[in-house]
Amino acid sequence: MSKTKSTYFCQNCGAQSGKWIGNCPSCGEWNTYVEEVIKKETKNDRLQLFTSKKDTKKTANTSVLLQDVGLQDFPRIAVPGKELTRVLGGGIVPGSLVLFGGEPGIGKSTLMLQLALRLKNLKILYVSGEESEQQIKMRAERIGITTDTCFILQETNTQNIFQQIAVIEPQLVILDSIQTLYTSYVDSSPGSVSQVRECAAEFLRFAKETNTPVFMIGHITKEGSLAGPKVLEHMVDTVLQFEGDRNHIYRLLRATKNRFGNTNEMGIYEMNGDGLREVTNPSEILITNRENATSGVAISATMEGNRPMLIETQALVSSAAYGTPQRSSTGFDLRRLNMLLAVLEKRCGFKLGIKDVFINIAGGIRVEDPGIDLALVCAILSSNEDLPIPQTVCFAAEVGLTGEIRPVNRIEQRISEAQKLGFEKIFISSFNLKGLNQKNFKIGIIAVSKMEEAFSQLFG
Questions:
Q1: Residues 115-134: tens digit of each pLDDT
Q2: How far apart are CA 224 and CA 2, in angstroms?
Q3: Which of 187, 216, 242 has its CA nearest to residue 128?
Q4: Would you call 218 helix, strand, or coil by DSSP?
Q5: Which class does domain 284-459 fall in?
Q6: Contact assessment for residue 251 and residue 276, using Cβ atoms and an 8 Å cutoff
Q7: Of 31, 289, 307, 350, which one is least surrounded by beta carbons within 10 A?
Q8: What element of type H or E holds 168?
Q9: Which CATH superfamily is domain 78-280 in?
């Protein structure tokens, strides 16, 4: 008879304790420790269901010199569509384990089903623990893509899943979702810390031993982080985050971790009735077309990874109605907004401490690039003075604590994107002029070094 062991896990961070404690020493949360029974299997309990048909005898690994290690060139699996290809770093790496997280209803299952249906040259196993086969069939018909290489399995037991994998021998496995799966070697409910960790470890071994890529859809907590133990993000090769506002039709795909590519890349999708559509030119959809110029609006040239795009920053400055001024920001860091307002108050002499300031990034996206500082500050000053900024002007610079205009990276790509969309002038830092050949651009480049210069150039 196999031995059983009981231990306590923190349901917030996954920390382990031999006894129940009220306050987690790892994350500081209270009353999160839950007792879970772990079944210790014997030698013959666990079956090697996902090993190849070749000789399965394994020997212990030996150490080798780094210079003697040979490199094997594994070609990436081509993914239909440029957005997912860009975020993954060029395609799917064989044997990789990808964790795909997002809020409920954001479109995780739709995007993964679209991927499974469009990869027509690969045998794919789509494992669903949340939806029935009929529900997946209805979604596939709504998407309007047909294929004869995608298998659907409605199962939550990992041992049964590996038995089907041994029969089908898929080239790609999609799990929807990892929180619904359970293994019989852990006597706890699906979704618990020990179950999520053990199921992920089983598919990690499967991916590495069979060189088969695995996509795992994961839930997120109310704080916005991936549910389950933090070790789950350390185990996988790539962590993709699918985000967006339900009140907007656009969805953003970011890579917060990628062992095979850049983590700064971003993909943009549009949610419509027949699935998710890729947005190839985000600059055109993120800029509002207006017939007349409006105060408080400025266009900024930003970078998301290697992709330049233009976004619209909106500001509203009004007198505080209740004594204490309000500060509100949508799509931009509120602490950085307070810093920029302090710079305008201290260095530039604008009395904004007694006024309400509201900031919005159009399109429902969130931007962390400091290169939009100058556009944001100019939008605030435009709303405060009620003077509109010309619609043919955009900005690309960072604002420092002393009021200086600081340079930003990839200035040539930002200027080229602004020129392509028909802008006539772009404000940049004077420090960006070093090494910049202005003859290559037809757009007017205005270099400034202080906020006062930018204000006088705009409003006279």
A1: 999 998 899 999 999 899 99
A2: 39
A3: 216
A4: strand
A5: alpha beta
A6: yes
A7: 289
A8: helix 158-168
A9: P-loop containing nucleotide triphosphate hydrolases (3.40.50.300)
